[in-house]
Each structure stands twice: as C-alpha cells, then as structure tokens.
Amino acid sequence: MSKIKPSKGAPYARILGVGGYRPTRVVPNEVILETIDSSDEWIRSRSGIETRHWAGPEETVAAMSVEAAGKAIADAGISAEQVGAVVVSTVSHFSQTPAVATEIADKLGTDKAAAFDISAGCAGFGYGLTLAKGMVVEGSAEYVLVIGVERLSDLTDLEDRATAFLFGDGAGAVVVGPSKEPAIGPTVWGSEGDKSETIKQTIPWDRFHFGDRSGLPVDSQGNIKFPAITQEGQAVFRWAVFEMAKVAQQALDAAGISADDLDVFIPHQANVRIIDSMVKTLKLPEHVTVARDIRTTGNTSAASIPLAMERLLATGEAKSGDTALVIGFGAGLVYAATVVTLP
Amino acid sequence: MAATQEEIVEGLAEIVNEIAGIPVEDVQLDKSFTDDLDVDSLSMVEVVVAAEERFDVKIPDEDVKNLKTVGDATDYILKHQA
Ligand SMILES: CC(C)(COP(=O)(O)OP(=O)(O)OC[C@H]1O[C@@H](n2cnc3c(N)ncnc32)[C@H](O)[C@@H]1OP(=O)(O)O)[C@@H](O)C(=O)NCCC(=O)NCCS
C-alpha cells in the first residue's frame, strides 16, 4: 500500500473578521399592519421587533453576500485571493443550481476558492462555522468565508398573523483562519427531524408548479399563494426556551467556560422573548452583553448571528478578544452552539 | 410523591412570580393568568415548562390554551401528575 501524504493545517482556528449588509429599505410595524390584524404594541411585546429590512430587486442573495463578505475580508486584513473556501448558508436563494457560493466567490475575486451552499436554517451560521474550523485545522483551506444570507421577505406570507411581522433580509459574513490559541470551542449541534413539521415551507416547489394544485392556500384575490415559511409558534417557542438553553449550557461546559467568564451572548435573533428567557435560564450575570439586534433587524435566519456580532462590535458594546457564546436554532429542527473569541 | 392542591398552587405562585414578577400572594385559584396575572401567551409557555419540571407532568401545547385560571392549571396537574 502506498503512503498518502496528509494535509497540514493550523493548530487552531479563529474568527478573524466580520461584516454585514442590511438592505436599505427599513420596514416599520405599520407596514405589517396593512396586511394582518395586529398592533404595533402586540408585535413589540411578543417579539421585540420594531423594524426590519426588506431587500429590493438589486439586493439579491449574491449581491448582499458580496457586500458583507467584502467587509469581513477587509476586517480580517487579508485579500480575497487568500480565501480558500466559501460556505454559504441560505434557504432563500431560488436558483438551486449552481450553488450561489460560486458566484459570490467569483465576484469577490477569490482564486478559484472551493464554494458551496448549505441548508441548515437558522442554525446555518454555526454549521458553517464548524465546517470552516474543520477545514482550517485539517488544512484544506487557510482562510474560509462563512456567509449567512437570507431574503426571507420572499418567503413570507404577509397575510399570516403568525409570521408576517417576524422575518427580515440581510447578509452576515465572517472569515475563519489559523490561530495559535483555541478561539472556537467545541460545537454542540444536532437535529430533531421528528419536529420537522413545526417550521416548514407551506408547499414544496414541485407541487406548487406541476403537482395537484387543488386545496392549495389562496390569497385574498383567489390566486394560489407563493410558498412561504409557516410555523407552529408555541411549539417552537417551547422548544427554544426549554431545549436550547440546555444546548447553550452544554456549549459553555464543552468550552470550559462559566457564565461568569463570558463577555457576550449572541443567540439567533428569533424572538426577544426567547433571548430573555435564555438569559434567565443560563443565569448570565449583568456584565454579559446580550445581542438584541432583532429589534431593528427582525429574524434573518442564518444571517442573524454574524449581523448581530458585527453590530455589537461596531457600536462598541462588544470588543475584539471578548468571549462570546453563539447559538443558532430553527427549521429542521436543527441547532448549533459554540463559544468563540470575537474578532 | 404526588403534590396536594395546596402545594401545586404554592408552586405555581413561585413560578409565576419568577416569570412575570407577580407577588406570590396574588396567585389564587380564581385568578386568570392573562387577565389578572400579566402572563401573556408566551409567558404561559414558560409557566407550563416550569410546571412540567416541578410537578412531573406533561402538558401538551393543545391543552395549554384550556388552562385559563390558576384553578384550571391546578386541576390539570392534580389529574395528570405521575
Ligand atoms: C410567533 C409568536 C410571536 C406568536 O405568539 P403566540 O403567543 O404563540 O401566538 P398565538 O398564536 O398563540 O396567539 C396568542 C394570542 O395572540 C393573538 N395573535 C396571534 N397573532 C397575532 C398578531 N400577529 N397580532 C395580534 N395578535 C395576535 C391570538 O389571536 C391569540 O389571542 P387570544 O389568546 O385572544 O386568542 C410566537 O409563537 C413565537 O415567536 N414563537 C417562536 C417562533 C420562532 O422563533 N420561530 C423561528 C425560529 S428560527
């Protein structure tokens, strides 16, 4: 048997830079109230959301990603040619083939970086980060771009009271690269496919286009509704506050970090009430900065954690070198949590 | 060991106090969670999750909406506790 030379990676990996892109159009709750029976007060008290961004025609999944990733590359102090792989997590890029990551890698000016998309819903950032860490340590790429990007406004039924106010659009990106010290902890992740019905697309694309269209939901004009994301809000809320606090605690334990050692908590921005409940259950001390970017960004699924991270660093609420717990969770159901050193 | 009615009300009072900040003495059998105790639909989920742990019962989502008052919840727990 011939001997195969192994690849040579870095001892550890870290997040070296972060960048975000928020669409220019800001949508206040008043706009949501045009299509559902609700109130600004209800939306704020049940979700924390005051405004969200919705993308315009030019703000495509690829365009928003290139903006966010360009900032992350600059923040990391590297050049695009040094990027060895581009991992894009999204559920709202409507052209399935080819992967949007390839277009992004090209537009950024990478040197033929490996590029692919992943589908892990609101846990997508943590899934991508875990892959990136593996690549850097294993040696298949020195620098990896992880991008979370969504145009969830395209998948929102504006007549659905349970979701119309919830979702937003945007892109967040990080560059992961070599480190002398551990700076990304063990990932606690998993899936619970037995709960796949709790967050899902209303109609699969094939049925929407060529299947039996009888019985499909119609809008107020009688047209068959475009597929959208629906959820069983209470069931998801219960799972998030009960199970995800445990996963977050496991990630702290796995990294050997106590709540007292923590500087920043960046959970997926699904609902401020989930965030507040987790803070309580985890008994996070006062000094821990908690991301509540949902107020002005809504739920941007895979983009929410890097977007919140970027904002906390930009406003000075968090600083480079801080220890942060990140946890993503959502459709699948899937989840991923880890502890990182902020770039 | 199964909890008595009195113990359940006491436990619920502590839970509601923890989640909604309502004084324990205000949590009485005839009080409505939403109208009297400032427990909205999402806080109610948190109350239920805490009650499940404390009293070793399963309260499925579809039953939660029937638990309007502290008395409803107490009866439910009395009947279903392991
Ligand atoms: C979506 C969510 C805010 C809805 O809150 P909820 O309390 O579960 O809502 P419910 O459907 O049980 O309704 C509760 C009450 O509010 C009312 N209501 C529901 N939607 C409403 C709306 N948009 N505006 C005003 N009132 C509304 C209902 O009619 C009901 O009133 P009633 O008690 O008088 O009958 C909440 O379930 C949630 O955020 N869940 C988590 C979802 C999530 O994070 N998903 C993404 C994970 S990645």
From TrEMBL, chain B:
PROSITE patterns: CARRIER, EAL. The modification O-(pantetheine 4'-phosphoryl)serine is found at residue 41. GO terms for cellular component: cytosol; membrane. Residues 1-82 form the EAL domain. One of its GO terms (biological process) is lipid A biosynthetic process. Pathway: Lipid metabolism; fatty acid biosynthesis. GO terms for molecular function: acyl binding; acyl carrier activity. Belongs to the acyl carrier protein (ACP) family. 4'-phosphopantetheine is transferred from CoA to a specific serine of apo-ACP by AcpS. This modification is essential for activity because fatty acids are bound in thioester linkage to the sulfhydryl of the prosthetic group. Keywords: Cytoplasm, Fatty acid biosynthesis, Fatty acid metabolism, Lipid biosynthesis, Lipid metabolism, Phosphopantetheine, Phosphoprotein. The keyword ATP-binding does not apply. InterPro entries: ACP, ACP-like_sf, EAL_dom, PP-bd_ACP. The keyword Transcription regulation does not apply. The gene is acpP. This is Acyl carrier protein. It is found in: Cytoplasm. It comes from the Bacteria. Residues 6-81 form the Carrier domain. It comes from Streptomyces malaysiense. Carrier of the growing fatty acid chain in fatty acid biosynthesis. Acyl carrier protein involved in meromycolate extension.
